[in-house]
Every structure is written in structure tokens, then in C-alpha cells.
Inverse folding.
């Protein structure tokens, strides 16, 4: 009996010890599980919030850069023409931006007295206060930067009560042959700022705040109460920059504060993560209840929950790391608790949104590049047509009918190739024929004061090149190379390794090294000029062919001047049968 009691006592002690060990292991397991879950959740919240912040900042900075590009383009157009002589042309360039861009309300150019020079009409109520407005005075005081105004005001347009954001910059323009100073102003629809973040999931009470460097509120977006907005502003002003967890109105929030490039603004993204924090608290309560009900059930549930939550979170974490490394093609498929599944679905939705935005931006950039190329091609100076028609009239008046026929025929072929059925790229053979027509006309016009010849390799005539690329170089050779003595213009086309070389050489006086440096400054845009020819060719080369393309100028005084176009070859040579080489 004593032995049985002793055995039972030992068994009870062993059972108690076992239960104590089980309880300790279970408690430790629960504690470890909750700690791991908490850390994983915090990391997931931080990574997710950073990705949302990164996308929002990316959207806003892209939009700001597009506005700056528009302003730079308008300023470039303005500086190249005399307002008095080209008012209609410049006015059309200003107004077309308000028509093709839904976010641009109006575009103006004011002089230093606040008088409108170009752009939309100004309401009478606003005209007399322009010089006192912050966007105007700031642009004149700090000339090298763009000023994004924080003033909440109505548009300057007559009968327009739309609230706008002002983007201004100091500008110079020519009027009556004199250089003048002024202010370029673009008014943006403030609703566009809101639309940039509409698809972003900020949570039930998440919101976005934009403030300037004086900590003044510019704009807000999202779901919030006034007390929450005041608390967010206070935290943002105190913290200034960075990302961190914070408590706003008894709710857990993740706040990211980031300066927006090219502005004096900071964007504050306040993301509601209180729902995820509640999941953590509910999980701890569930574990405690399981401990009370049953050690065994607690152990089973602990293991099950660990597998149901930790694995999906790790999967989600690895996918986030892949996204950080630039892989946007893999999606997360997890099962388990509803919150984790919901987070994975939100994460997949975010990936889809990023992919869609990236594709849209690529398409927009591609279309923009095409538009810029067409715009540059349309800048070819029409004075050649006027001069040719004058030459035809002169020939007709002097009964030189054969020269009239030759000139008109060459002019017709010249413009037929210039149009090229709307194509931007033609074969080198057509481009050479285009130059031949041009030289035929010019030789009649200059009464045979020059000779020309072609040295073209057969193997390159089938390559496609950007049209109207040789004629401006030949025109430059004629305008600046012909003197009292008869000169010779030579056009050479050949291939050098992976490049197509187009070379125009004219004999004559030549040009100095200083003049060559001046021409390089002009085509690179560092010198102001109204000339279109060489700069037009250079810009179109760089726009389509990239950094590998170049325009090289060399000269020997009293001997010759050579302009060489280097084009990277992107297609196999397509030789044309029976192509004659003209020398």
C-alpha cells in the first residue's frame, strides 16, 4: 500500500512536473510566438508604409517635374522670339498648354510692372494686385528657382472662381529688339494635387498633408477629423523629416515626412495602421484565454497559429524585399488569418497599381518623345521657300524659262520628300535626293557661284535616317561658305564601325576655333540664339539616337570647313540594287 501510495506520489510529482514543464514550454512558446508575430507585423507595417509613401512621393515629384518641364519649354520658346514680331505665334504656344493639359488653368508672362505680356486674359479685379502677390515678388527676388506658392487664391482668369496653385519663375524676353525682364506664371488646378493620391490605401482615417517651409498648410487629402489634422500638423512640424509610428487620437498611425524635390514643400503621409495593431492586441488576449482553458489546447493552437501566421508573414516579407530590389512581377498567395490574407491582397493591389503607373509613365514618355521630335522637325525655317519663290519670279522676269522649269521641278521634289507621307524617318537615298534638289535650287539662285559633289558608299544608302538632317548643314555651308570665288561643297556618306558618318565639307575661308566654340555653345543651348538650323539638327539627333549621336565641327582657315554627323547604326545595311555612286 505504502509502495502504491509512493508510486502514485511519484507519478503525481512527475505529472505535476510534466505539467509545469508543459506550462512553462507553452508559456514560453506563446511569448516567443507573440513577440515574433509582433516584430513581423511591425516590420510589415513599416515596409508597407514605406512603399505607399514612396509611391505617393513618386507621383507628386513626377507631376512637379512635368510642370517644370512645361514651364521650361514655354520659357525657351519665349526667349527665342521677339514678342512684338511674333506675338500671335507666342500667344498660341501659351494658350495651347491650357487646352491640352487639364491641370493647367492658365499661363501668363508679366513684365516687372505687373502688366500682362502674353497668355490668358486677366480679370480686372486681379490686375492691380499682381505686383503685391507672393508668387510675383518671390520670382523677381530669387531668379534661379521655381516658386510653388502656398497661397489659396482664385485664378486670375475673368469669371473664374477656381482655386489654383501658382508656379512662377523669373523670365527674360525680347520685345522690340530689347531684352526685358518679367515673371512667368502657370496656374494649376488644385484638384489635380488631390487626384494623385486617390488610389492609395491610407487606411480608414489615413490622410495626406502638404506643408511649406514656413510650416503653413497647403493642402490635405483623406479621411480625418479636425482634431486629428491638428495633431498630425503638430507632430509633422516638430519632427520635420522621417518615418515613424505615432499615436493620433488614440489610434496607431505610421507617419512619413518627405521633402518634395524642386519645391519648398514637405508631404506628410499619415497611414492608419490601428487595425493591424488591434490584431496584435487580440492575439495576446486569445493566447491568455487559451492558457486558462487548456494547456493542451493552448499548445496546439499556439503551434497552429504560428504556422498560419508566421509563414504567410515571412512570405509577404520576402515579397516586399523582392519589390525593394525592383521585381514587380511576382504576386503573394497566402492562406491563413483573414488579416494576413487581407494584407497580402492589399500588397498585390499595390503591386498592380505600381505596374500600371510605371507602364503609363513609360507610354507618356514615349509619346512625349515622339511629340518633341515632330515639334523640332516643324521648326525648319520657311525662309527657304520664300527665297526660292523670289528666285523663280526673277528668272521668269528675265525670260529664263528653262531655269524656271528646273527650279520648280526641284522645289516640288524637295517638298515631296520633306513631307514623306508623314514619316519621320526615310532612307539615306531619299535624304540625299532631298539635298540634291535643294542644291539644284540654290545653284540657280546663286547663279552658279559654287559647285557640289556627292561621295556616297553604296552599302549605306539603304539605311533609314531622320529626315531633314543634311539640308540644314548644306544650307549652313552655302550661307557662310560662299564668297567672291567659286567654292565646292562635298557631301560624303560612309560607315565607320557601328556608326553612319554624314559629312558636309565646303571650301572657302574657314572659321576660327573661337567661332567653333561659339557654335557649340549655341547648339548646346548655353547661348541665346534665334537660329534654328544647327541647333535643330543637334537636338533631334540627341532626342532620337541618344548620347552616341553627335555633331562634330572642324575647320582649316582659308582651306575648308567640315560638319560631321555621327549616327549609331541600329539596323542591318539594306543595300539598294543598281544604286549609282555620284562623285
Amino acid at each position: 500500500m505504502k509502495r502504491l501510495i509512493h508510486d502514485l506520489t511519484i507519478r503525481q510529482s512527475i505529472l505535476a512536473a510534466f505539467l509545469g514543464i508543459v506550462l512553462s514550454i507553452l508559456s514560453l512558446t506563446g511569448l516567443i510566438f507573440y513577440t515574433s508575430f509582433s516584430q513581423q507585423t511591425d516590420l510589415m507595417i513599416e515596409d508597407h508604409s514605406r512603399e505607399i509613401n514612396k509611391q505617393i512621393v513618386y507621383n507628386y515629384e513626377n507631376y512637379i517635374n512635368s510642370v517644370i518641364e512645361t514651364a521650361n519649354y514655354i520659357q525657351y520658346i519665349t526667349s527665342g522670339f521677339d514678342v512684338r514680331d511674333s506675338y500671335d505665334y507666342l500667344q498660341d504656344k501659351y494658350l495651347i498648354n491650357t487646352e491640352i493639359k487639364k491641370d493647367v488653368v492658365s499661363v501668363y508672362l508679366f513684365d516687372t510692372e505687373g502688366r500682362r505680356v502674353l497668355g490668358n486674359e486677366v480679370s480686372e479685379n486681379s490686375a492691380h494686385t499682381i505686383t503685391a502677390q507672393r508668387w510675383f515678388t518671390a520670382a523677381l527676388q530669387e531668379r534661379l528657382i521655381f516658386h510653388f506658392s502656398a497661397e489659396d487664391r482664385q485664378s486670375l482668369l475673368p469669371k473664374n472662381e477656381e482655386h489654383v496653385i501658382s508656379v512662377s519663375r523669373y523670365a527674360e524676353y525680347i520685345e522690340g529688339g530689347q531684352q526685358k525682364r518679367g515673371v512667368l506664371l502657370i496656374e494649376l488646378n488644385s484638384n489635380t494635387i488631390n487626384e494623385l493620391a486617390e488610389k492609395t490605401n491610407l487606411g480608414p482615417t489615413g490622410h495626406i498633408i502638404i506643408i511649406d517651409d514656413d510650416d503653413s498648410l497647403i493642402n490635405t487629402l483623406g479621411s480625418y477629423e479636425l482634431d486629428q489634422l491638428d495633431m498630425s500638423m503638430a507632430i509633422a512640424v516638430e519632427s520635420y523629416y522621417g518615418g515613424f509610428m505615432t499615436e493620433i487620437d488614440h489610434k496607431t498611425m505610421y507617419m512619413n515626412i518627405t521633402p518634395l524635390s524642386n519645391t519648398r514643400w514637405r508631404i506628410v503621409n499619415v497611414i492608419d495602421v490601428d487595425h493591424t495593431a488591434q490584431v496584435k492586441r487580440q492575439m495576446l488576449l486569445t493566447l491568455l484565454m487559451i492558457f486558462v482553458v487548456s494547456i493542451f489546447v493552448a499548445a496546439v493552437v499556439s503551434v497552429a497559429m504560428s504556422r498560419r501566421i508566421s509563414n504567410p508573414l515571412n512570405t509577404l516579407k520576402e515579397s516586399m524585399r523582392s519589390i525593394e530590389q525592383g521585381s514587380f512581377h511576382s504576386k503573394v498567395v497566402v492562406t491563413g488569418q483573414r488579416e494576413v490574407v487581407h494584407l497580402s491582397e492589399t500588397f498585390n493591389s499595390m503591386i498592380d497599381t505600381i505596374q500600371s503607373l510605371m507602364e503609363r509613365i513609360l507610354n507618356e514618355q514615349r509619346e512625349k518623345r515622339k511629340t518633341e521630335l515632330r515639334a523640332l522637325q516643324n521648326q525648319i525655317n520657311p525662309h527657304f521657300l520664300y527665297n526660292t519663290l523670289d528666285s523663280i519670279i526673277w528668272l521668269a522676269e528675265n525670260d529664263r524659262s528653262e531655269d524656271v522649269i528646273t527650279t520648280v521641278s526641284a522645289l516640288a521634289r524637295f517638298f515631296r520628300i520633306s513631307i514623306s507621307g508623314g514619316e519621320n524617318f526615310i532612307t539615306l537615298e531619299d535624304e540625299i535626293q532631298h539635298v540634291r534638289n535643294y542644291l539644284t535650287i540654290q545653284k540657280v539662285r546663286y547663279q552658279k557661284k559654287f559647285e557640289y559633289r556627292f561621295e556616297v558608299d553604296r552599302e549605306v544608302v539603304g539605311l533609314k535616317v531622320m529626315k531633314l538632317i543634311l539640308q540644314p548643314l548644306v544650307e549652313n555651308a552655302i550661307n557662310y561658305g560662299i564668297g567672291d570665288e567659286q567654292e565646292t561643297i562635298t557631301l560624303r556618306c560612309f560607315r565607320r564601325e557601328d556608326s553612319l558618318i554624314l559629312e558636309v565639307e565646303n571650301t572657302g575661308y574657314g572659321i576660327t576655333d573661337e567661332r567653333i566654340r561659339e557654335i557649340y555653345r549655341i547648339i548646346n543651348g548655353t547661348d541665346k540664339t534665334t537660329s534654328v538650323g544647327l541647333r535643330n539638327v543637334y537636338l533631334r539627333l540627341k532626342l532620337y539616337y541618344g548620347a552616341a549621336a553627335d555633331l562634330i565641327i572642324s575647320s582649316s582657315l582659308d582651306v575648308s570647313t567640315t560638319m560631321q554627323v555621327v549616327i549609331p547604326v541600329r539596323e542591318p545595311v539594306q543595300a539598294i540594287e543598281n544604286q549609282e555612286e555620284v562623285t
